[in-house]
Specification:
about 270 residues; alpha/beta; 8 helices; about 30% helix; disordered N terminus
Length: about 270
């Protein structure tokens, strides 16, 4: 049986570097760096967006991005996902339901007809504040379970251990067990990957844990797919807190074993950190 060739775009690469320490000469050392590759998402043959991402779990990334951005209304609207290597990056081809693809083309047509740049104008601002249905209030998390997840997370961040430059998004159950850890050089992409895993997993109640700050986009992605509790180890932004309050999402920040800040909807939290 012939050996399977390595992928053209691995998630990490060995390199040689020089290291300086006080009162010592420069020394050559082995190192490992996380890879960052251009990943194009292509819907029914139409190229939609190019993201820089770590080239692993790309089917999960495409699924999560498609659901979190409202391109697909539900998991059943995604018929197929195929990852194809290209000379300058990776293409992920997503086959969408025809109604979703028609809506995507209409959205692109409207965006192409606008003038200005960035988020200028009322129409663009309306795109930022996406109208989402309020989240249900069905999850109750005991804070000692969050402690258990926080303590277990570093050991499962394998790419971060090797390279020191990736974010993680994790899903943990209500007893604090880590069910999935997704890593990427991009914090948004890590969360998209986690959302993609969650969409096909059948997990019950739980919460999402981020090793990054919580920006408004992270809150919006979580709320769009029904995640009721979002925990970040760093700070949230003011807009993230505003959106979490509006969507009915429980947002926590500065999470460490034994302490956490609660910014919105504390009714889902039980007990005190252990």
């Amino acid at each position: 049986m012939s050996a399977v060739p390595p992928p053209a775009f691995p998630p990490q690469l060995p390199v040689q570097r020089l290291q300086w320490q006080a009162e010592q000469p420069l020394q050559s050392c082995d190192d490992v760096l996380a890879c960052e590759v251009a990943v194009a998402l292509v819907y029914n043959g139409l190229a939609h967006v190019v993201m820089m991402a770590t080239p692993q779990q790309l089917e999960e990334f495409a699924r999560g991005f498609t659901l979190a951005e409202g391109i697909a209304r539900q998991q059943a609207d995604i018929y197929d996902i195929e990852v194809r290597e290209a000379a300058s990056g990776i293409e992920v081809h997503v086959e969408l339901a025809s109604a979703c693809f028609a809506a995507l083309k209409e959205r692109r047509r409207q965006l192409a007809g606008r003038t200005g740049c960035g988020l200028c104008g009322v129409e663009q601002l309306a795109e930022v504040f996406r109208p989402l249905a309020p989240l249900p209030d069905s999850v109750r998390l005991a804070l000692p379970a969050l402690d258990r997840a926080l303590q277990a997370l570093p050991a499962q961040q394998l790419l971060s251990q090797a390279t020191g430059c990736t974010h993680a998004a994790a899903w943990f159950s209500l007893d604090g067990s880590l069910l999935q850890v997704c890593e990427d050089v991009g914090r948004h992409v890590a969360l998209d990957k986690l959302i993609g895993c969650r969409a096909v997993s059948g997990w019950g109640g739980g919460a999402a844990l981020l090793t990054s700050r919580a920006s408004y986009e992270m809150v919006q992605k979580a709320a769009a797919v029904g995640i009721e509790i979002l925990v970040a180890v760093a700070a949230p932004t003011a807009l993230a807190v505003q959106m979490a309050e509006q969507y009915g999402l429980t947002l926590l920040g500065f999470a460490r074993p034994g302490r956490v800040n609660v910014y919105t909807h504390p009714q889902r939290l039980l007990g005190q950190p252990g």
